[in-house]
Specification:
Among the domains are: 11-207, Rossmann fold (3-Layer(aba) Sandwich); 442-543, GMP Synthetase, Chain A, domain 3 (2-Layer Sandwich), CATH 3.30.300.30. The chain is of the alpha/beta class. It has a 9-stranded mixed sheet, with helices on both faces. A 5-stranded parallel sheet has the order 4-3-5-6-7.
Length: 552
């Protein structure tokens, strides 16, 4: 029998996600953000839509057409959020650039994407001035400021965001026939392993991701949620939290420029935020500040996090406060997440608290719509679900990417046979839970055996005196590699802990050959723009003799 088909002509669009908030929750406060001049910005979803229409008219007047690239160089503010809605709904391409890139990487990403207009926060203008002469396609700049008088700068021509909006109409006819697989958003990788690589989002991938992650035991958005997305828009489009919040009718609290842990906690208390989103390091710093008792955060009920593996101390900290944690595993290439921790499954009944919290530090189960396999790096065959056999995580599905943007060489090394090869090493437990052990490039091979830097880091972090920990491998003449631990201490413990204080708890948990040869105390660890520790930088510092060993 020949295959028969069902007629399906509807093209997935982004506008309906936003319009659900405007039509059904329009009179409700939808947006809050502290402004650059210590002012506050608040508006309803209906008022926000009028600003979005003004912005679309302004962009059109500036010459933006479908397919044009619109870049931003900005913090998570309401203006930046408005651009993230408006640009792709017009059929143009939203490209949030990484404010923490090196000069070389920033120039490369802007030129590679062929950005036509650049929107920039006022305090970041000096950084753009330094590279403006190297930008080949940028035709004009818009400063994201409420100020009526523009600052003096060599960026030219220059426009004021609010002035453009004031002069524009509050209505705009957004297209409803954009191809669902057209380029809508362009985000670049962190640039920690060579030049940044672009990952494109389509309306289809954004809609499917929002819908696929909105089910039970997933991201769990509701009308009464007040959501604060701390993950920057330049990192995987802030996990599309602005779209998910809109389609649920919730409220967005943009954290504003230079948000410190204290700033974040003040906003949670002030705006009664109940849903906090941030990288695991950001969450950890926030929880550590909370423990000092300075803030009333009784409103906080849900946390969405990822980027690096959680540790049991952090999970316990949130569990005792009754916070539901949506812990996910993913990457830019996967257009955010592949798996998430399911908070409770039937077979966990009767587990000890310690075993349960340990399992909650794993990466969980595949999200519906995504396939995840762990395969032997030599044979390509699936590993056994025994919690022992190690393999590489590969994935494909409804929203993971299938290529890098305009980069065939990089694509061939990662996207193979229809699967995204993540470069992450993992095991699978008997219940299907994925447990990431390390990156292929970070796994430590000592005497022919693998040591998981992630497992060591999580164990070290159970010490309440530790603020951060990172373990990395260094060359060894006999064993090929040996682990070295770097730690930062909370302020009140600085100078009070020895190397043995860090290593002693590890000796009862791991084989002797797993124990780090050295513990190095540092004031801070080198971090990427997505709040991951730069282990390559630590290895370079070791090779250059810049890390001070205790007693040396």
């Amino acid at each position: 029998m020949p295959i028969e088909y069902v007629k399906e002509t509807y093209q997935m669009q982004l506008r309906p996600l936003l319009m659900r908030a405007v039509l059904y929750f329009g009179d409700k406060e939808g947006i809050y953000s502290p402004d650059h001049q210590s002012e506050e910005f608040r508006c309803t979803w209906h008022e926000e839509y009028e600003r979005i229409c003004r912005l679309a008219n302004a962009l059109e007047k500036l010459g933006i057409e479908q397919g044009d690239k619109v870049a931003t160089f900005a913090w998570n503010t309401h203006r930046h959020g408005e651009l993230s809605y408006t640009v792709p709904m017009m059929g143009a391409v939203f490209h949030p650039t990484n404010i923490r890139y090196s000069r070389e990487h920033l120039v490369y990403a802007i030129n590679h994407s062929k950005d036509k207009i650049m929107f920039v926060d006022e305090d970041l203008v000096p950084l753009l001035e330094e590279i403006s002469e190297e930008l080949k396609t940028v035709e004009l700049y818009v400063v994201l400021t409420p100020a009526e008088k523009l600052l003096k700068t060599k960026l030219s021509p220059l426009y004021s965001y609010e002035e453009l909006l004031r002069e524009a109409s509050t209505t705009y006819d957004f297209p409803d026939d954009l191809p669902e697989n057209s380029l809508a958003v362009l985000c670049y990788t962190g640039g920690t392993t060579g030049r940044p690589k672009g990952i494109g989002w389509s309306p289809r991938s954004i809609v499917l991701r929002c819908l696929g992650c909105s089910g039970a035991d997933q991201e769990d958005f509701h009308e009464d949620d007040t959501v604060m997305p701390v993950v920057n828009l330049f990192h995987v489009n802030s996990h599309n939290f602005q779209w998910s919040t809109a389609m649920s009718g919730g409220k967005l609290v943009w954290p504003g420029p230079h948000p410190s842990p204290d700033d974040q906690l003040r906003l949670i208390e002030k705006e009664k935020v109940n849903y906090f989103q941030g990288a695991s390091t950001v969450v950890m710093f926030a929880m550590q500040e909370w423990e000092k008792g300075k803030y009333n955060l009784s409103s906080l009920k849900k946390v969405f996090s990822g980027a690096t593996a959680p540790n049991k101390a952090l999970m316990e900290m949130m569990d005792k406060r009754g916070i539901k944690c949506h812990w996910t595993y993913g990457m830019v290439e996967g257009r955010v997440n592949f798996t998430t921790v399911t908070s409770h499954r039937k077979h966990m009944d009767g587990w000890s608290r310690e075993k349960y919290l340990e399992r909650m530090t794993y990466q969980g189960l595949p999200i519906p719509g995504v396939e995840v396999r762990v395969v032997n790096v030599d044979t390509g065959k699936d590993v056994a679900w025994d919690g022992k056999e190690i393999g590489e995580v590969i994935t494909k599905g409804l929203w993971p990417a299938e290529e890098y943007y305009n980069d065939a060489e990089a694509t061939s090394g990662v996207f193979r046979d229809g699967w995204l090869h993540t470069g992450d090493l993992a095991i699978v437990e008997e219940d299907g839970y994925l447990h990431i052990l390390d990156r292929l490039k970070d796994i430590i091979k000592s005497g022919g055996e693998w040591i998981s830097s992630v497992d060591l880091e999580n164990a070290i972090m159970e010490n309440s005196a530790i603020r951060q920990a990172a373990v990395f491998g260094v060359p060894h003449p006999k064993w090929d590699e040996r682990p070295v631990a770097t730690v930062t201490l909370k302020e009140e413990y600085k100078g009070k802990l020895s190397e043995e204080d860090i290593l002693k708890p590890l000796r009862s948990r791991f084989p002797g050959w797993w124990i780090p040869d050295y513990v190095i105390f540092m004031d801070e660890l080198p971090m990427t723009g997505t709040m991951k520790v730069m282990k390559r930088a630590l290895r370079d510092m070791w090779a250059e003799g810049k890390l001070k060993i205790s007693g040396s």
